[in-house]
């Protein structure tokens, strides 16, 4: 795992614009060298802003990235009905994926409570999906960070932090509702060339500082093989 780079932007809007531009450039470069570009998306307010900005970028220049050829995954997902507003995938589809022509076969959603009886079954199926259709490594894993330092749905003190023999795990006691989720494990998240942690807001500043100092928070345990970048707005960077 390499040393992280920190980028600080004035506010959430400029942060989202910078991340969207960086992702489009990175995917274009991957496609130019003949790689199969695979991205793990995240959820939340700042991710939604990034997704809207990606759709805007694509509408202005559709030649930058062949979006139909990019595979999209999620670092975690809420185990709720498929049409629930809590679904990260539903938000990403509405803001971005359905706008830019991503092929349906390349959008790899985590199974919902409509698809599986239990969250454990959904996690097992998602692991199989990655084994079957994944390329062996993500090009980019995008992650938010919670005020407690969690990433994906890997929360401080939870058993899922120590799972190293699975791709995806069920989470049944999330401290944030909804309580049932599916999350990629650290070994799966870290099979990526680039890890981008995208963080906005003063309430995240302490968690950011603790992670960058190497303290024992989940966000300190992720990183890419080529780069680890913390994209922050000034509020999130205020304690660094």
> By helix and strand content, what is the structural category?
alpha/beta
How do the SSEs run, as a string of H and E?
EHEHEEHHEEEHEHE
Distance between the termini: 20 Å
Q: Report the radius of gyration as a whole number of Å.
A: 16 Å
- Portion of residues in beta strands equals 15-25%
What does this structure look like?
- The structure is a single chain.
- The chain is α/β, with parallel strands linked by helices and 240 residues long.
- It has a single domain (5-233), classed as Rossmann fold, CATH 3.40.50.1360.
- Helix content is 32%, strand content 19%.
- It is built from 6 helices and 9 strands, in the order βαβαββααβββαβαβ.
- It has helices at 12-32, 45-60, 88-100, 119-133, 186-189, 205-212; strands at 5-9, 38-41, 71-74, 76-78, 138-143, 168-171, 181-184, 192-199, 227-233.
- The chain has a 6-stranded parallel sheet with strand order 1-9-8-5-2-3.
- Strand 2 (38-41), helix 2 and strand 3 (71-74) form a beta-alpha-beta unit.
- Helix 1 crosses helix 2 and helix 2 runs parallel beside helix 3.
- The mean pLDDT is 96.
């Amino acid at each position: 795992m390499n040393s992280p780079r920190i980028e600080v932007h004035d506010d959430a809007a400029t942060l989202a614009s910078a991340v969207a531009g960086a992702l489009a450039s990175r995917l274009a470069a991957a496609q130019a060298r003949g790689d199969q570009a695979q991205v793990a998306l995240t959820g939340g307010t700042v991710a939604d802003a990034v997704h809207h900005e990606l759709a805007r970028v694509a509408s202005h220049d559709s030649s930058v990235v062949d979006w139909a050829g990019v595979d999209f995954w999620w670092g975690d997902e809420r185990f709720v009905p498929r049409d629930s507003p809590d679904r990260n995938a539903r938000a990403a589809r509405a803001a971005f994926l359905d706008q830019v022509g991503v092929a349906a076969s390349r959008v790899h959603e985590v199974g919902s409570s409509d698809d599986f009886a239990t969250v454990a079954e959904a996690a097992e199926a998602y692991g199989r999906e990655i084994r079957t259709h994944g390329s062996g490594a993500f090009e980019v894993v995008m992650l938010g960070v919670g005020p407690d330092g969690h990433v994906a749905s890997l929360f401080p003190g939870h058993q899922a932090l120590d799972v190293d023999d699975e791709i995806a795990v069920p989470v049944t006691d999330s401290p944030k509702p909804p309580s049932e989720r599916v999350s990629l494990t650290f070994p799966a998240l870290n099979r990526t060339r680039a890890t981008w942690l995208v963080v906005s807001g003063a309430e995240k500043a302490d968690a950011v500082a603790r992670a960058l100092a190497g303290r024992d928070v989940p966000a300190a345990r992720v990183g890419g093989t080529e780069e680890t970048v913390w994209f922050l707005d000034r509020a999130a960077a205020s304690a660094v």
